[in-house]
């Protein structure tokens, strides 16, 4: 018996691991939901339209990538993305990268 809408999911922890190498992937994130369930390997990607998240995925036999875990609806995806990107920005501000001087 489904209890649709019975409770609100809360992201209770966000762990950000910055990616040191150059490229579009900026960090790998783990989130904890309701202090009971963890999703690892969410990627923060710097795309053409700015930062976004990519849910954990694996390559299928047909060569396509399939999400292993993902939100069921766009509202939940947007909420998770907003929380992750806010934490990512906080981490980036707290640990600024070395800036090379071109003077």
TrEMBL record:
Signal peptide: none annotated. Could be involved in septation. This is Putative septation protein SpoVG. The keyword Glycoprotein does not apply. Pfam families: SpoVG. It comes from the Bacteria. Belongs to the SpoVG family. The keyword Cell division applies. GO terms for biological process: division septum assembly; sporulation resulting in formation of a cellular spore. It comes from Blautia hydrogenotrophica (strain DSM 10507 / JCM 14656 / S5a33). SUPFAM superfamilies: SpoVG-like. Keywords: Cell cycle, Cell division, Septation. NCBIfam families: PRK13259.1.
């Amino acid at each position: 018996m489904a209890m649709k809408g019975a409770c609100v999911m809360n992201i209770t922890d966000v762990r950000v691991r910055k990616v040191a190498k150059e490229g579009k992937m900026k960090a790998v994130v783990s989130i904890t939901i309701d202090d009971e369930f963890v999703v690892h390997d969410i990627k923060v990607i710097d795309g053409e339209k700015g930062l976004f998240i990519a849910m954990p995925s694996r390559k299928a036999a047909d060569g396509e990538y399939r999400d292993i875990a993902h939100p069921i609806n766009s509202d939940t995806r947007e909420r998770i993305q907003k929380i992750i990107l806010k934490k990512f920005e906080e981490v980036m501000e707290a640990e600024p990268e070395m800036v090379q001087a071109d003077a």
